[in-house]
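Can anyone check this?
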Amino acid sequence: MGSDKLDTVRKLLAKADGAATAEEAETYTAKAVELMARHGIDEALLAAADPGRDEIGAQRVAMDDPYSAGKARLLAWTATALRCRAVMHNMWGGKIEAVTVFGYASDRERVEMLYTSLLLQAGSQLIRQRPSHPDESVAAYRRSWLHGFAIEVSRRLKAAESGAAQAAGETAADGRSLALVLADRCDRVDRAYDEAFPHLSPAKRITLSGSGYGAGTAAGQRADLGRGTVAPPRRRALGT
């Protein structure tokens, strides 16, 4: 992300942190998310004029326990919302070893920034989560909580991306509409992804027994979608 936009995002989020009311904080946070989505559009239009500027590539991210599967879904669904693809590696016994994020460099940068932030945000809340029923497993409750958190964050990110694209209404230097530019980028990522991973098995259906989904969804609605840096994620944030 350009340093000017990144600085603006950080300032907006600082204002959100010091806001007097929840409504004021949400206003600042929404603007930060809007700027991050706008950055994706800017990079797409620049790359349409200069294809060598933004190239498709992959980054493999190791998942640590506890809750490696929940972390993996949080990363994969964040990546999907930001026009990337993701593949989960070595899924067994409710665990996932790693996730590969596949997409344009500028979009993978945004994914890394958001995942770093979301991992820390979820971790700070997850360690305090307990089921209301004493007989329910704490681990099961937390797994379902994290699942709800990831789903809601993904929904919000997709809405932000769609809203930014509709509001932009711009065309590329070659005369193509923004919608066609973004569709072309997604198509190129899909084709490169299929070539890189031609023998993937269908994803297994997710089965969770805990009752924390609703609380996790509510936490996802409150999550700050712009805080953080482009530093490598602190993988042990959840459950430590």
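Reply from J.R.: I decoded it. The beta strands are 56-62, 85-92, 95-104.
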